[in-house]
Amino acid sequence: MANRLTDTLFQLIKTLEKAEKRHFKLYIKRSSGNEDLKIIRLFDALDKMPEYEEDKLMKKLSPITKTQLANLKTHLYKQLLASLRLLKTTDNVDLQLSEHLDDARLLYNKGLKIQSLKILEKAKELARTNQKFNFLVQAISLEKKIETLHITRSTTDKTEQMAKEAMEISEHINRVTRLSNLALLLYRWYVINGHARNIEDEKSIRVYFKEQLPPDIFKTVNGFYENLYLYQSYCWYAFIRQDFLMYYRYSQKWIDLFTEHPMMVEIETGHYIKGMHTLLNAHFDLRNFKQFEITLKQFENFAKTPAASRHDNFRTHTSIYINGARLNYHLMKGTFTEGLKLVPEIESKLNEYSLYVDRHRILVFTYKFASLYFGCGNYNKAIDYLLEIINGPLDLRMDLQCYARLMHLLAHYELGNDELIESLTKSVYRFMVKMKNLTVVEEEVIRFLKGSFSLSPRQLKPELEKLLDKIKHLEKNRFETRAFAYLDIISWVESKVQDKPMSEIIYGKYLQNKHRQKKAKVSSGSILH
Q1: Of 59, 75, 90, which marks where a domain is finished?
Q2: For residue 53, which of 69, 29, 71, 31 has the smallest C-alpha distance?
Q3: Which residues of 27-58 are buried (b: 16+ CB within 10 A; e: fewer)?
Q4: Residue 28: pLDDT above 80?
Q5: Could you report the per-residue pLDDT of 487-507, keeping only the tens digit for each?
Q6: Roughly what angle, to the nearest 10 degrees, separates helices 34-48 and 8-15?
Q7: Measured between alpha carbons, how far is 185 from 297 in angstroms, rounded to an integer?
Q8: Is residue 469 over pLDDT 80?
Q9: From residue 406, how far is each of 22, 149, 339, 413 by CA, in Å?
Q10: Same domain, yes or no: 85 and 9
Q11: What is the pTM of this model?
Q12: Range of 42's domain?
């Protein structure tokens, strides 16, 4: 995989579909000279290579120098993009708008000002329909330039309307920019740090959110994009603070926004896919089992639509998010063995989509795989996956880095590797303190493990009961919930106390919660009627 990711041209060629390759060759043969026949040879050579190897490539294209190869690659890259632009323009509103703007500029430069204005008017209407206000700025800017420099016989009303529209769009874009910046930076904070670790993190996020949120935003917010980024900002804000009820509320608003504007599913498919993923995560965090199943089914149905498979990004991310949700479903039910049946297929998909999947997503899947193996008692296999995280870079998700080490410690405890436990407990404790990720729950668990060396089997159970008593009441504490969300430590301790498999303990809780939710729904229905 490493070699594939070293050459941008090779990456681009490997993403092309058969129809795109066929179109490119027709495009080149129709519009190019002898020099461009060389790039066909280069294209064919790269297309047939399983991995990018420059020495082999130069032998295939011999005689050729490194400088000539670099120039050919640059030329081929540009021609591929030109071919894709021609092929994909009708599929993408942004490309259509860019084409209209380019046409208007060309007509204006030829002195055909009235024709240019007509094209701009058509483009503006398309932009308004699809809420592409950033494009409107460019279109109005060119329109004003033409009206200012030339006599076009436009009415006074039209020029006044143009000036007013420019101001309204400027204010709208300013709000969208501030809200999208806020959503982006909050998401970035989460990717690096995970959830708020303590009161200091909580205060810091609260202050930052309040400072960055535009004043009176709920009174001034208007239009699809302003609401979209507002809901996203609240989602990440709530998620970081582990306010899962607020997280659910704004995830649902995010998807409801697309329900209110159904045409935007086609235009902003990426945001819709991310919204479905976020809503599924919210149901998972709140253990809304029934709603999780309904939303997952809805997402799986969407995955079969043309919109979901229109672009490589949409197709791959839909698959990744659905597979992640399927694993979550088994993790929250305790059906670990069933979940493990999905692992080979998901790993195959991740390998297939290696050009598109970021390290953060790989890290999350690796942790989920380890959790499934740990839950069904295959501790050696869990350790294999956990070591991939532990031995990897420390630049992402400090929370997962910490809990991977804690699960690794528990796996060795389960395997009876007593000679490793003492050094591992010290190592895990130091790491979690350093990362400011040590809560009362982890401290109690590590303290128990350190003291377990000297305990006889008869003494062990009372100590486990004491541990359970110490941590059970912390289940509702927001700053302690990470230990339960990332690693169901309470269910693990209960499984030791009750001498049952961890999967059986979690599945029992699933059945109780499902029954409780069903009963609550019936009760609510009787009140309404």
Answers
A1: 90
A2: 69
A3: bbeeeeeeebebbbebbebbeebeebeeeebb
A4: yes
A5: 889 999 999 999 999 999 999
A6: 80
A7: 31
A8: yes
A9: 52, 69, 22, 11
A10: yes
A11: 0.76
A12: 4-90
